[in-house]
Design goal:
Elements: H1 25-30, H2 32-35, H3 41-50, E1 52-56, H4 62-72, E2 76-80, H5 105-116, E3 121-125, H6 134-138, E4 143-146, H7 151-164, E5 168-174, E6 177-183, H8 191-194, H9 207-210, H10 215-233, E7 242-247, E8 252-257, H11 279-283, E9 289-290, H12 292-300, E10 306-309, H13 313-318, E11 325-326, E12 347-350, H14 355-366, E13 372-375, H15 378-385
Parallel strand pairs: 1-2, 1-4, 2-3, 4-5, 9-13, 10-11, 10-12, 12-13
Antiparallel strand pairs: 5-6, 6-7, 7-8
Helix pairs in contact: 4-5, 4-10
């Protein structure tokens, strides 16, 4: 894990120029347990009521984050998401119920949050955050909280926040580990200072492939909510210039202090990034890819190629594409002889979502299998866009 030299950062806060609306008698009763905090008080509650916070991704992190911000009385809460609720979401995405499955996340989230606190204004951005719309969405908010689970969107959120002059409250979870930081290019490092380049595709499995303990996003999303509130109040010491790492298995916390990289192309002394870029290309695989539509067309034409499935046997029992050969990624280096008949021929590799298969493609190409390409989106995309009868998991 990359980290800079030790340095102490000043406290962070959002602009104090925002209006401070009066508190109603109901507000005083509802928020009485936090208003009595000396660090908050009635004036702090007014700041919360006036604040505008954007949550990007209303999943495992965004669910507890948005619940606690709503409960705390943040006046306006923007939510960005374009997915529908899936059964596999429910073990960690506590905004939703079994009845939510198949429904748009934001409609379900708004109903749940309004039931919790009708005084909070919910703004739904039911679209995918992209380089085209990110700045237009983000500029209307005081604080942005990143609850996403993929590198292209993390870099997009970071870059848009730096260009728009907004703090970015970041968290990530994987298996039993959580990470948290506040990136603010005006006061400290941004995400690019810590991770100048994205990891090679396939080297870092996503939660679908690697798993995540359901309660872990609850811990990290709650910590994000605390950092957002601290920024709004200008209280305490936000995690600017810090990367907080939580190991749930050992119940240990580690704080790595990082500093702004003066050579950072985004927030450094001579920034070269002046606008948002194509983040899928920036984080994308070096190897070629084919879409599931192209895979279907090749199958229909009965072309001569090998369809290689690098998932685990248990996953294949849940769902498979007919005609594929199973070699789990971990076994692939030892079973390359089985692929010798396809050396110099086409090998289309798929996994669940495209992460492990990208790693497999790189391995195969390094071993001389030049015709290996990745099936973008994996069997999840196949189920969504080609054959809905194939179960999603």
């Amino acid at each position: 894990m990359a980290a800079g030299n030790l340095v102490r950062r000043p406290h962070g806060m959002i602009s104090s120029a925002m209006p401070t609306p009066d508190l109603s008698p109901e507000d005083l009763r509802r928020y009485s347990r936090q208003i009595v905090l000396p660090e908050l008080g009635p004036e702090g509650q007014k700041k919360l009521k006036a604040a505008r916070v954007l949550v990007v991704g209303v999943g495992g992190l965004g669910a507890p984050l948005s619940l606690y911000l709503t409960a705390a009385g943040v006046g306006t809460l923007g939510l960005v998401d374009h997915d529908a609720v899936e059964l596999a979401n429910l073990h960690r995405q506590v905004l939703y119920s079994g009845e939510s499955v198949g429904r748009p996340k934001l409609a379900e989230a708004e109903a749940r949050l309004k039931a919790l606190n009708s005084g909070v204004r919910i703004i739904r951005h039911e679209e995918r955050l992209t380089s085209r719309n990110a700045l237009d969405i983000i500029r209307d908010y005081d604080v942005v909280a990143d609850g996403t689970d993929n590198f292209p969107t993390r870099y997009l959120v970071n870059d848009a926040c730096v260009l728009a002059g907004k703090p970015n409250v970041y968290a990530a979870v994987f298996r039993f580990e959580g990470r948290l930081s506040v990136f603010d290019g005006r006061k400290g490092p941004c995400y690019r200072c810590l991770f100048p380049q994205p990891p090679a595709p396939g080297t870092v499995p996503d939660c679908a492939a690697g798993g995540v303990l359901g309660a872990l996003p609850g811990v990290m999303g709650s910590l994000q909510a605390i950092e957002v509130v601290k920024l709004i109040l200008g209280a305490g010491e936000p995690a600017i210039g810090k990367l907080v790492v939580f190991d749930a298995l050992s119940m240990e916390w580690q704080t790595i202090t990082i500093r702004k990289d003066p050579r950072c192309p985004l927030c450094g002394k001579a920034p070269s990034i002046q606008s948002l870029v194509d983040y899928e290309a920036f984080c994308g695989p070096g190897a070629s890819e084919v879409s599931v539509e192209e895979l279907k067309a090749r199958l229909d034409r009965k072309e001569d190629f090998l369809l290689l499935d690098v998932r685990e046997p248990g996953e294949r029992e849940l769902a498979c594409i007919p005609g594929s050969k199973l070699i789990p990624l971990g076994e692939l280096p030892k079973r390359l002889k089985e692929l010798e008949p396809y050396r110099g021929r086409s090998i289309l590799v798929h996994c669940r979502s495209g992460s492990r298969s990208a790693q497999a493609v790189r391995l195969l190409r390094e071993k001389g299998f030049s015709g290996a390409v990745n099936v973008a989106g994996g069997i999840a995309a196949w189920s969504e866009r080609i054959d809905p009868a194939v179960p999603k998991y």
